[in-house]
Write a structure and sequence with these properties.
Elements: H1 14-23, H2 32-35, H3 41-55, H4 64-77, H5 81-95, H6 98-108, H7 119-133, H8 144-148, H9 153-176
Helix pairs in contact: 1-3, 3-9, 4-5, 4-6, 4-7, 4-9, 5-6, 7-9
Length: 202
């Protein structure tokens, strides 16, 4: 599951057990990326709060489809197959179309063209791509294209934090060798609720 020791939900106690209970699926599944934090529950708690705030809390200037697409875009650029698979599955759930999710994911990084990637989505992915590939080259004018497609400053901040979250998540996974194994894909908390329990959402 990872290159370091992890504590399973069955073996967890104390604060770790409480945190696992907050994020487990109805079947008791805890994603391996979260179990990778098990030796330091404090970083698991921080990860969960950042994830929920960036990806699954309202208000957010990006739609659920856009958030998942940006997550897949960044994860592909970072070579994080674990996050690609999870968030492409999340994108497919929002689209109700796995083939379209794959098409948009590939278009997001210029792997193949797609007329179904909107102008706004292209701008989101262009910003995400530059910030991921060459962060030191970012300039104020990079925000102009985002404003041109309708993002206000709060939405730009939302986009920035999603890109930054995936930089963190991808490096957690890649640096610790986290594997998918048999865990279900595309589970996430409902942004309509306060909790973090993961579930499959359409």
């Amino acid at each position: 599951m990872a290159w370091i020791k992890t504590i399973s939900p069955e073996a967890a106690s104390g604060k770790l057990k409480e945190l696992y209970e907050q994020v487990s699926s109805p079947e008791g599944q805890v994603d391996n990326i979260l179990q990778a934090h098990s030796l330091r529950p404090r970083t698991l708690a921080a990860h969960l709060q950042l994830y929920k705030a960036a990806m699954h809390s309202r208000p957010n200037g990006l739609s659920p489809r856009e958030r998942e697409l940006v997550g897949v875009c960044v994860s592909q650029l970072n070579g994080c197959e674990y996050c690609v698979q999870h968030h492409r599955a999340g994108l497919a759930r929002h689209l109700n179309n796995p083939a379209l999710a794959l098409e948009l994911s590939e278009a997001a990084i210029g792997k193949r063209p797609s007329q179904r990637l909107s102008e706004r989505e292209r701008a989101l992915c262009a910003y995400a791509s530059k910030l991921t590939r060459i962060p030191g080259a970012m300039e104020e004018r990079d925000l102009a294209e985002l404003r041109n497609v309708g993002l206000d400053d709060a939405a730009i901040l939302d986009l920035n934090q999603i890109v930054a979250y995936f930089a963190y998540a991808n490096r957690t996974v890649l640096g610790l060798g986290v594997k998918i194994d048999d865990e279900p894909l595309g589970l996430h908390p409902d942004e309509r609720e306060a909790g973090l329990q993961h579930k499959a959402l359409g």
